[in-house]
Amino acid sequence: xxxxxxxxxxxxxxxxxxxxxxxxxxxxxxxxxxxxxxxxxxxxxxxxxxxxxxxxxxxxxxxxxxxxxxxxxxxxxxxxxxxxxxxxxxxxxxxxxxxxxxxxxxxxxxxxxxxxxxxxxxxxxxxxxxxxxxxxxxxxxxxxxxxxxxxxxxxxxxxxxxxxxxxxxxxxxxxxxxxxxxxxxxxxxxxxxxxxxxxxxxxxxxxxxxxxxxxxxxxxxxxxxxxxxxxxxxxxxxxxxxxxxxxxxxxxxxxxxxxxxxxxxxxxxxxxxxxxxxxxxxxxxxxxxxxxxxxxxxxxxxxxxxxxxxxxxxxxxxxxxxxxxxxxxxxxxxxxxxxxxxxxxxxxxxxxxxxxxxxxxxxxxxxxxxxxxxxxxxxxxxxxxxxxxxxxxxxxxxxxxxxxxxxxxxxxxxxxxxxxxxxxxxxxxxxxxxxxxxxxxxxxxxxxxxxxxxxxxxxxxxxxxxxxxxxxxxxxxxxxxxxxxxxxxxxxxxxxxxxxxxxxxxxxxxxxxxxxxxxxxxxxxxxxxxxxxxxxxxxxxxxxxxxxxxxxxxxxxxxxxxxxxxxxxxxxxxxxxxxxxxxxxxxxxxxxxxxxxxxxxxxxxxxxxxxxxxxxxxxxxxxxxxxxxxxxxxxxxxxxxxxxxxxxxxxxxxxxxxxxxxxxxxxxxxxxxxxxxxxxxxxxxxxxxxxxxxxxxxxxxxxxxxxxxxxxxxxxxxxxxxxxxxxxxxxxxxxxxxxxx
Length: 741
Description:
single chain, alpha/beta, Immunoglobulin-like, 9-stranded mixed beta sheet
């Protein structure tokens, strides 16, 4: 009792400063909520859903409310407080009108709107520590600045790749910086850096300048902070129990849109914590293994989801070459409602769909995330059990090896190759492909005569040459996994300035969206020509070959990003072709990307790997997904009970390119060093005494480097390196000395 008598009860009474502080928190959180949600939605939808008049009205309301509050507090008079209340009542219809427009802009189902309240409460909870601090303005400004900067970055990234930023993108920062330069331009990058530096200096100055002796304006505010945080968590639990919060592993756009940007970003961090599934133990894993082994021993038919391959495709002892061709942003543009074209953009692919095995493939990403789809196809692992947007090339393959189509086929005498007409170390592929067991990897640094699109992506036509090169590089059967890039976003909204062959003859979409589609159909038309070239190549060979073409994800077109056009964004088309008769009743159908390797290996008559055997034997079982999750956790993060010793893999000695780049001789000619060798490309850079030199590419056999007179006597070690992203060497030649000849 004596203790309570000593408490200063006046500190529990709200005062002018404490009320002002709480109102500031509530209002700042609301402004941050609006900014983050609008930028998030703008990044993944078309523009123009809010009229300018509505935008001006909204900005006016946002400014009038705090200014009037500040005025009322400054006057500190009853009549001004009454006037403030009357003003808010009068503005309520306008605020309701703006909110309705904002709600339509976000395009959220009515039952999901309450998730946005959670997003607001999360932001409010992040701000509440201000009640414990002296430097209150600094903290609010810092939190606001960080959230707005993240939202701007998310806006830019979403436009570029079609999906929002998640925690796992921390692993991709190195790859993102060069793309930011090409997307924004060097001048804008300088302005961005200058702006960030200025912002940091502003934070430092504000921290130094803000002087405040009062830490707690009122103990009531501490209680309110606790209530806000506890209320936020209770509300979160309610939404979880009511199953109002959603999680679409393949559709981050919808997840972020429905659940709110700030909450979804934080959730992506928490999902990165690897949680052991229920029932994970040695007994359960070995029980699944026994079940798979028993069914594998006495069952030659294959069930993938609801589709059964009643007989294998090739019972001959002579196994075929196996080609996977992953097409960037590939879809059937005829499925977009309200748009007609002057001709079919994909005639070759359509012919394959009509005459061969085809269907739809569910992908783990929408609008972007090429590496996620390639990972599922290569490994048979379902990414649904990992985190939002996670790229296993960084988070898993950087430090451990996995079974893949490459390791499985190498055990059967195949040579294994990967090809991609983009940088070799983008998405960490030069390391990831070693972890997946590939023998060679031909990236753009090992290609010559590369043509570029208007947005500076390599055209796909170059890939046919290197597929043929891989097939001819060995006497054995070959696996060739090819990834294209030509159909990559962004798709210009002003592409009507280009003269492209296929026209949009009719469209009920806005001009910006029509222009995007106009550009897109012409790029995938060129990809379709590449498909025709690959089919012609396969037909010209005297070796049995089977090839599958499929899209990695739907394109990041604005019309699709706003869920218009009546297109299923979770699937892409696939078509399988072979130059020999496939002895199978399988006609295709709906599958998932992680099941593609099971189908291809089965049609080729090859032995299956561990994951493929799971899909083969358990695909029609009730506990299929549950067992799949347990096995995947065991292989990726657990105790590795599932794999036998002979199924565990080692990293391969990956060779970059199929042809050796050799340095044979270096001679001095006047003020130039002439470098002679074989298979040079425009990414071949000369290093002298360990120092990079400006290199002139003459042809495949010759490079030249300028040499100052005073440096001629100091030339010792000369080497040529293939330089990838971030100026990282992907491979290098033997060292030679300067020749006197």
